[in-house]
Design a protein that fits this description.
Layout: H1 4-11, E1 21-24, E2 27-31, E3 38-40, H2 45-55, E4 63-65, E5 84-86, H3 87-97, H4 100-110, H5 112-122, E6 126-127, E7 141-143, H6 144-153
Antiparallel strand pairs: 1-2, 3-7, 4-5, 6-7
Length: about 150
């Protein structure tokens, strides 16, 4: 049995804010007070990108080209010379290697505005505001509740 007091005691001294949501196959066991609050999201936005592709199937065998000027740090694509890939490989690199270039490519392939609009329409606490590794005043946001919903859909 989970000791929720012990969990709260562990989280209490941590700096900043923490959202915690624990669920098993029978349902939610614990939802911290901030589980529905939006937090800045970096790599967790990749779950939402994968959900988009799951909901809007593409021909994953099609060959795509990743332009050299779109390569960013974070992941394997910035270290490889190969620029032509099957769309399935780009999805795999995003999910298995947390590749930022792959994520940005997959967003661009659909269209930033189109994907952002689907996120807003489909999920209460999910916002796509920027590409990964982009320096801007815009931000990506996600709640623990939405992260769990994304994981469950996938």
């Amino acid at each position: 049995m989970l000791d929720f007091k012990k969990i709260a005691d562990i989280l209490a001294p941590l700096p900043g804010k923490t959202a915690l949501l624990i669920k098993d196959k029978t349902g939610v066991l614990y939802a911290g007070p901030l589980a529905g609050e939006e937090f800045k999201s970096a790599s967790l936005i990749k779950l939402a990108v994968a959900c988009y592709y799951q909901a809007h199937p593409q021909d994953l065998s099609q060959m795509v080209h990743v332009p050299e000027d779109k390569i960013v740090e974070g992941g394997i694509l910035c270290h490889l010379s190969q620029r032509d890939w099957m769309l399935r490989d780009i999805l795999d690199l995003m999910l298995s290697d947390s590749d930022n270039t792959a994520t940005n490519f997959l967003i661009d392939f659909i269209g930033f505005a189109k994907m952002a609009a689907w996120f807003e329409a489909e999920f209460a606490h999910l916002h796509l505001g920027r590409y990964l590794m982009e320096v801007t005043d815009r931000e990506n946001y996600l709640s623990a509740e939405t992260a769990l919903e994304l994981l469950e859909r996938l």
